[in-house]
Specification:
Two copies of one chain form a homodimer. Chain A is of the alpha/beta class. Chain A folds into three domains: 3-164, Rossmann fold (3-Layer(aba) Sandwich); 187-314, TPP-binding domain (Rossmann fold); 338-512, Thiamin diphosphate (ThDP)-binding fold, Pyr/PP domains (Rossmann fold), CATH 3.40.50. Helices cover 36% and strands 17% of the residues of chain A. Chain A has helices at residues 3-13, 28-33, 48-62, 72-89, 115-120, 135-147, 160-164, 187-197, 211-224, 253-260, 304-314, 338-348, 366-370, 389-399, 411-414, 420-426, 442-450, 458-462, 473-479, 490-501, and strands at residues 18-21, 41-44, 67-71, 93-99, 126-128, 153-159, 200-204, 227-230, 237-239, 247-248, 265-269, 293-298, 354-357, 376-380, 405-410, 431-437, 484-487, 507-512. A seven-stranded mixed β-sheet of chain A has the order 9-14-13-15-16-18-17, sandwiched between helices. Chain A has a six-stranded parallel β-sheet with strand order 2-1-3-4-6-5, sandwiched between helices. In chain A, α1 runs parallel beside α6, α8 crosses α11 (304-314) and α9 (211-224) packs parallel to α11 (304-314). At the A-B interface, α2, α4, α5, α7 and α16 of A face α2, α4, α5, α7 and α16 of B.
């Protein structure tokens, strides 16, 4: 048994059975070992950013890490943006980076690169396996570290000779996962007292946005009358008819400030203190109102749903009646705009589906229109590095066990990682992509004026404009093997969406929205 | 004048007038400043790896840096692979990375990331501008540093508030470039003596591969009878009818060893000591024969062409007659394979064109078939990070002043950065892309056996196979606005190639080669 076989064996023993990969020469023994360790499934991606985003999406829906397989520093560089998003989402990923043979490093061959420097920007566990005997236990340590709490990207460097050399003593390749501890005694009572006495806002994030946490938050809200918000870009938000629905903390600092206005105490459960996504010349970075006390009920390293349940109990909050649900929107007709797009999604979203949302400006109506759709999971771009949607949809679909994935994309965003479509086709994944296209980096047109920059210049506007030529997104999708069509009215979108949901495998809908900026 | 306008002014004053960009919110003032500084041209790229590869291609054909504009750490991550290639090519690039406002950093907003850590893996100049007054002089220092010698990637971080705040004293934003020194006295005489006495091999790289260095190398070769090689992946190689043509050092260590076999002295001019591209279980990493002395005539920080001329003079080498040229290959007919592909390129390559070569296994016959084509420049993937070709062709075409760029791509490689095609269409660049497609990571199929890994497994082979679905590369190109067709015979390739050369703007030819591995 060589190091590569030992590594794959360690993955299998620790339930890491999916590897999204884009290998090179230094990873050939890892690739060869796929035939020796049947439990591990390799999924080929044409670009490393697809592999890393897929590992993120997989972990979000399964709670377990997938592995990536990347080729030296440049491969890690290509994977970086979506690993950044995963880092911000606190999901577990086992990031495997092949490297030159240990003895080859001194020759500074062309692909030699400082893998550790790049990985350090991911702020997670890092190790380079030094000997074949270490590979199994290093992998186990990486997997254990990836679970956290909080979840993180663990990067294991696998030198080629460590991969190809024989293992004498495989060590102890079983991961010991840390128990997620309860919040410290005292904080629950302190928060309960504060919420009884003062006007409170409860901000939920991380695991508090799964069903258990939301149910407890609903009890707390009905008992105290506090308003409940969720962080702007959740890792996974459980939602839909009957599920307690916090309000989203607005992306725009101006509106977020209004949501927090008047709060005397801000209680954080699984969320960090809210800050503006970007800085702006005349807007404060910190969103918490002056004089508002901040109490951290549960940070990322404790059991946030458990803390919310303890808080609900401390408040003697009864289980509330199921949230009354309004009717879902009807099927829209007429022009295709952000409103009718949202209605189309809201009217058709199937029960148990996973929504991957990288719709940006085009998706402003989506959360409102889907709150009473059948229960579903909602994944967002937690780290703000664009190019998340299609790759995450790949991973979510691999992990979702046959549930439909609905990926709401946008034209600018999908152009970072369009290669993900090929993996969807190759693996026959049940993904419906609705790509909102308005031929513009619309959010940047908005931000251009918002940061106080001169908005009028033609040369500046040209840098935010996606015309000349217009992207034919449906043709791009078909070129990667995904059936695709372009729709220009709400009626056409409804028909195409419904057809896609009923058709196994991926399909792509280019939804042409009128741009508000052109 | 704000920091952004000051920065663009400094670029213009230092002849950095092209900026390949993919901006985000923190770069909006830079974008707005494009309307204030008419000398600087912004070129929009849909993905940062296109911007960085374009800056590399631009610098190779012009000798001057272009700027990139990237969005925080994830933008730098996406750009990293092609910056790695540029680092290995020793070309000057001014890499501008927008960042959060300085005061915003402490809030750890979602896009906060350790830009310096990632940049450190580029091993070049790095600075974050601290104040608006510093921006101009920081840019000048970055540009000066980028020129080297040797050329390097200089990374300037531009915090949003430094960009938007007013400049009081703009400083001295003019770059002082270092003079490239002559090689030390003594080394020329030492090398001349060694080459007179012993069997010598002269290995050329870097600037020694431009016309001046090659002419001197030709004199040295005819005077001493030494064999002359060029490094495997040149930054820019001048070549064609009448130009002295060194032999390429083979990519495969086995063959490279044979090329160096029997050498008693290896003279390096602008090249590093040759090493194997990858390590293999039973092949030495160092390629220099045992007992062969290595003499560095010129390293990367001295004037390599000047050193070669001095050496030729010291050897009293006459100017050789112009290299006798064989006929160019005729237009091929019949099946399309690596041989007829090479003949087609060799028969039609226009004078003065720039070839960007990322053909990998499909291009094995290219150098031989084009050596007697009219004079042209040949650019290769110096760093081994795949996804170089299309982006470099963008930058080369922007810098080439109307000369045709011929980009010989391959299917796996182009799938890393296909978005470059959109910028070709948008800017109307005169690029002929010939994309060799064989539905396989063919080089990895070869490497899989070469590293000694089990070659037979079906699951391993599937990870190197680009079918199921087959990539419709011509459709991808058309979806980005580039006219495209697919050819399956040599005759069709000749017709399509000729038509493309005669048609302004980009065109794309998907050249279907029979795979040797399927």
């Amino acid at each position: 048994m060589n190091g590569a076989v030992s590594l794959l064996g360690a993955l299998a023993r620790n339930d890491v059975t999916t590897c999204f990969m884009n290998p090179g020469t230094s990873e050939m023994h890892f690739v060869a070992a796929l035939d020796d360790v049947a439990e591990v499934r390799g999924i080929l991606c044409l670009f490393e950013g697809v592999a890393s985003g897929a590992a993120d999406g997989f972990a979000r829906v399964t709670g377990r890490p997938a592995a990536t397989l990347l080729h030296l520093g440049p491969g890690l560089g290509n994977a970086f943006a979506n690993l950044h998003n995963a880092r911000r989402a606190h999901v577990p990923i086992l990031n495997i980076v092949g490297d030159h043979a240990t003895y080859h490093a001194r020759y500074d061959a062309p692909l030699s690169s400082d893998i550790e420097a790049i990985a350090s920007a991911l702020d997670g566990w890092f190790r380079s396996s030094a000997r074949p005997d270490d590979v199994g236990s290093d992998a186990a340590a990486a997997i254990a570290a990836s679970y956290g709490p909080p979840g993180q990207v663990a990067t294991l460097v696998l030198p080629a000779d460590v991969s190809w050399s024989e293992v004498a003593h495989p060590g102890a390749p079983v991961a010991r996962r840390a128990i997620v501890p309860m919040a410290p005694d005292g904080i629950v009572d302190e928060v309960a007292q504060a919420m009884r006495d003062r006007k409170a806002v409860l901000l939920l994030g991380g695991t508090a946005l799964r069903a258990r946490g939301l149910a407890a938050a609903g009890r707390i809200a009905s008992s105290t009358g506090c308003s409940v918000l969720h962080e702007t870009f959740p890792t996974v938000l459980d939602r839909g008819a009957g599920v307690f629905a916090p309000e989203r903390l607005n992306y725009l600092a101006e509106f977020a400030t209004a949501q927090l206005d008047g709060a005397e105490v801000l209680v954080l459960a699984g969320a960090a203190e809210p800050v503006s996504f970007f800085a702006y010349p005349s807007i404060a970075s910190r969103l918490v109102p002056d004089g508002c006390e901040v109490l951290q009920l549960a940070d990322l390293v404790v059991d946030a749903p458990g803390a919310l349940e303890a808080l609900a109990d401390a408040l003697h909050a009864p289980t509330p009646a199921t949230r009354p649900t309004a009717d879902r929107p009807g099927r829209p007709s007429g022009p295709l705009d952000t409103r009718s797009l949202a209605a189309a999604v809201g009217s058709l979203l199937p029960e148990g589906c996973v929504v991957v949302d990288e719709s940006n400006t085009s998706g402003v109506g989506l959360l409102g229109a889907t709150v009473d759709a059948p229960p579903h999971e909602w994944l967002t771009n937690t780290g703000g590095a664009i190019g998340f949607g299609l790759p995450a949809a790949v991973g979510a679909a691999v992990g979702a066990g046959g549930r439909r994935v609905v990926c709401i994309e946008s034209d600018g965003s999908m152009s970072y990682t369009p290669q993900a479509l090929w993996t969807m086709a190759r693996e026959g994944l049940d993904v419906t992509v609705v790509c909102c296209s308005n031929d513009s980096y619309a959010i940047l047109n908005y931000e251009l004026s918002r940061v106080g920059a001169t908005a009028g210049g033609e040369r500046a506007k040209a840098m935010l404009d996606l015309t000349g030529p217009t992207l034919d997104l449906a043709a791009t999708a078909r070129s990667y093997g995904v059936p695709a069509e372009t729709v220009t009215t709400a009626d056409e979108l409804v028909v195409a969406f419904e057809k896609s949901l009923a058709t196994p495998g991926p399909s792509f809908i280019n939804a042409r929205l009128a741009s508000i900026f052109r």
